Amino acid sequence: MKHHDSPQPHAQPPANSPKPALAAGVVAAEASFTPMPDEVARRAYFTYVNQGSRDGHEVQHWLAAEAELIAERKQTREHGFHNRT
Question: Which one-letter DSSP state was computed for residue 6?
């Protein structure tokens, strides 16, 4: 393998190129929404208790809790409840 002394330029899009668009109806703040870990933990714990406190399902409970919180956030945004006073 040969080592080149001069660095090769990396391919970069032109400065005026369009940025990738988000899915229709998705705003940037929603796209980056991540539930707080304490919210997820609380929801996962309630699922754990409601399913009989069986060990060995921590990851499934955590992922389900995250998905539920994200879905609730999405539904709230779609219906405009986040803007009500």
Answer: S
Domain ranges of the chain: 28-83
Q: Six-digit token pair at 62?
A: 């955590």
Q: Which helix (H) or strand (E) holds 66?
A: helix 58-79
Four-CA torsion 74, 77, 81, 82, nearest 10 degrees: 110
Q: What is the pLDDT along the chain (85 residues), one digit of tens a residue?
A: 455 555 555 555 555 655 544 444 545 544 568 999 999 999 999 999 999 999 999 999 999 999 999 999 988 887 766 555 5
Distance CA 63, CA 51 (A): 15
In Å, what is the CA distance from 10 to each residue of 13, 38, 83? Answer: 10, 41, 44
